[in-house]
Design brief:
Elements: H1 3-19, E1 23-25, H2 32-54, E2 69-72, H3 76-100, E3 118-120
């Protein structure tokens, strides 16, 4: 295997691990922990892609999204706030990326997966 192919394989495996993460907050409240966790994973993905691109690998667009975070909340209002927090945070991250990093990459893959954030009621009695 050529060095370029080996590097691409390592990147692919790493990014696949990031896309397959499942982060759970069993008492998510307003969703702040989930928001920060999602942003951290998206930042890791971006850093890996930018470093690989600097080494000569083909550019890749972001693929990590809200589908990796899950929360449990007994308060319906807080659960809706958590959904909104994650949704807005993901949009803001994408906006920041598009306005600040377009100059770093001549090619961008805009593929995005739809979110599947799930907030469930707790099993604990009210």
């Amino acid at each position: 295997m050529a060095p370029h192919e080996a590097a691409e394989e390592v990147r692919s495996r790493y990014l696949e691990r990031l896309r397959n993460l499942a982060i759970l907050d069993p008492a998510c409240g307003s969703g702040n922990f989930l928001y920060l966790a999602l942003q951290a994973v998206k930042d890791l993905e971006l850093k890996a892609n930018l470093e690989c691109e600097a080494l000569g690998l083909a550019p890749r667009g972001p693929a990590v999204g809200p589908e990796i975070v899950h929360g449990i909340e007994i308060n319906p209002l807080a659960a809706e706030l958590a959904r909104t927090t994650i949704w807005i945070g993901d949009i803001q991250w994408g906006h920041w990326l598009s306005t600040n990093l377009m100059a770093l990459s001549s090619k961008r893959n805009g593929r995005r997966r739809s979110s599947s954030l799930e907030i469930h009621r707790s099993l604990a009695p009210n």
